[in-house]
Specification:
Mean pLDDT: 90
Largest sheet: 5 strands, antiparallel
Structural class: alpha+beta
Distance between the termini: 24 Å
Number of helices: 3
Length: 169
């Protein structure tokens, strides 16, 4: 991985988080289970051949909930960085990826229509950035507008930029 985001014109980052059980189990198991599904989703979305995209995964981090209702369980968080995305950055492509991320969240029990803002969730997938491309759409802002304020995203992102970690025991 390149040590600088500025060198990553063809990079895409996604944050993962969970603090409620899902069909896969506790939050840690949810992230372990969703990992290969997320990789395949992005490879398919990017219209890439396996191996064209390089994935770098942060370690799993346990963090306290930020904002939202008090007394939430601890979160399990991670970031994956995809390098080598050749699909041209465009609003339609970004919204397509967002839709697919939300579908994956639903498969793990998340219902965005019935949850509190910044409340507990079984799976949260946030598109953080797509290279240096900027988007200001009612459904998606890139880069993520609160990325720089969230230690629980920045720490895993920096770790993913340095090297990929395998979560298997």
């Amino acid at each position: 991985m390149s040590p600088s985001l500025a060198d990553q014109a063809h990079s895409l980052a996604i944050a993962l988080g969970a603090n409620l059980p899902s069909c896969a189990g506790e939050p840690r198991q949810t992230l372990i289970t969703v990992r290969p599904q997320l990789e395949q989703l992005v490879i398919h979305w990017a219209r890439a051949v396996a191996g064209e995209l390089r994935c770098s995964w942060s370690p799993l981090f346990e963090t306290a909930a930020v904002g939202g209702p008090s007394g939430q369980p601890m979160y399990c968080n991670a970031v994956v960085l995809f390098e080598g995305v050749q699909r041209p950055a465009a609003e339609a492509a970004a919204l397509e990826l967002l839709t697919q991320l939300h579908q994956l969240e639903r498969r793990f029990g998340r219902n965005r229509n019935k949850e509190l803002q910044w409340g507990p969730r079984s799976l949260d997938l946030d598109l953080l950035f797509w290279g240096e491309w900027r988007l200001d759409h009612p459904c998606l802002v890139l880069p993520h507008p609160r990325l720089h304020l969230r230690q629980f995203v920045l720490e895993p992102l920096l770790a993913a930029m340095q090297r990929s970690v395998d979560w298997r025991p």
